[in-house]
Design goal:
alpha/beta, three-stranded parallel β-sheet, 8 helices, 12% strand, globular
């Protein structure tokens, strides 16, 4: 469901825990219900995801770091320590900060995207090296696009995002026109 239904806004998720009995469960709740003993972990730069979007009483290991570089180091260490999560969610935020600071078409923004790409590569390589991609699914989704003066709005430029999926069961396809990131 979209925000017009679930009613989550930045101010709400920063101040209120997400209720476990919500009629709109997170993916973490769905997985916990199907696999009660599954290892679940959420790594975030924007800590409000762990605070107000993922339910608190699901035994999800919620880890926050203030910088993507630190977060990536923490994730890679976690993987190399032998952890095998059924679901590992990662949210990088430095590129978003660069867009807010410099604008969506500034060279510093593009450099932040290239840096994030390197972090994603480090995480992916750690998963491969530890055998977690043998049956794993690796999904990368941008949260929103940019315009010169817009950020995450409803224009085509702001609402078109990159989606990349890798795994042994993934076929090389193009998503149909009109597919939304929540689809």
């Amino acid at each position: 469901v979209g925000p017009e239904v679930h009613k989550l806004t930045n101010s709400i998720v920063s101040s209120s825990p997400y209720p476990t009995d919500s009629p709109f469960p997170s993916l973490f709740r769905r997985i916990r219900e199907a696999y009660p003993d599954a290892e679940l972990v959420s790594f975030n730069n924007w800590s409000n995801i762990n605070k107000g979007i993922i339910e608190n009483d699901l035994d999800v290991n919620k880890i926050n770091e203030d910088y993507d570089s630190l977060l990536t180091d923490t994730i890679v260490d976690y993987i190399y320590e032998g952890n095998e999560p059924a679901l590992m969610f990662v949210q990088l935020d430095d590129a978003d900060h660069a867009a807010h600071t410099y604008g969506g078409f500034d060279d510093k923004y593009y450099q932040a995207i290239r840096t994030a790409d390197g972090y994603i590569g480090r995480i992916y390589n750690a998963l491969v090296e530890n055998g977690l991609m043998e049956n794993g699914l690796f999904i990368v989704v941008a949260d929103h696009g940019e315009t010169d003066d817009g950020h995450g709005g409803t224009t085509v430029e702001e609402s078109s995002v990159t989606v990349a999926i890798k795994g042994k069961s993934v076929n090389n396809i193009t998503l149909p026109e009109g597919t939304r990131n929540r689809d």
